[in-house]
Amino acid sequence: MIEELVPAEVAACDLFGDARTHRLFDSERALVENAVAARTWEYTTVRWAAAQCMRRLGRIPAPLLPGRLGAPRWPDGLVGSLTHCAGYRAAVVAHASAVSGLGIDAEPDEPLPDTVVGHIASAGELQHLAALRSAHPAVRWDRLLFCAKEAFYKLWSPATGSWLGFDGAEVRFAPSPGDARGRGYVVRPTGAASGFPAVRGQWLARHGVLVTAITTAAGALPATVPAPDDQDGTAATGIFS
Q: Which residues are involved in binding CoA (predicted)?
């Protein structure tokens, strides 16, 4: 499913369920040795998926350990992103010479609590969601907004080395009725984050899962970006896996 949302130069792997035979590197295993079984399996399985991607790119799989802000540190010359939700795991990896950044997210295709929507959406986005719900009521637009912002944060954080609040970017969807494949959206950073370029993403709803993906070509991201200094409770969750 995830491969439908990224270009050919990106290796993608996903699965519904867990890779029960995958062996973690010792350094990876140490980070989940006290975790509950469900967390251990989702952590293990996204690393299995990432290993498949690395092999497809001609690279030997390597440990994926968290950096300062929690994002996985990819081997030199590679960029990537991981995601998981109940029953679904995915990874995407590419050569840094071809792709400057990747961000993916998966969420259950279920309504988002109203209290959460109010924290993640701007006034303009709330109006946008209302119009989308009226035109395309079958789509969980509120959850999809959350999913799109999470994917953007996973792109943003490794590229800038900084946090970003949910209010640091505006999302606009452009649904294509009848299109069973990925559908487009645009993310425009705002405020202190506006030095970062707008990026385009794709989304897909299938098998009870919403998936979003953003890919930026080599050279598309700036070398330096002003870092927002708002790190209050509205920050994106930053669950990188």
A: 39, 47, 83-84, 105, 150, 154, 164
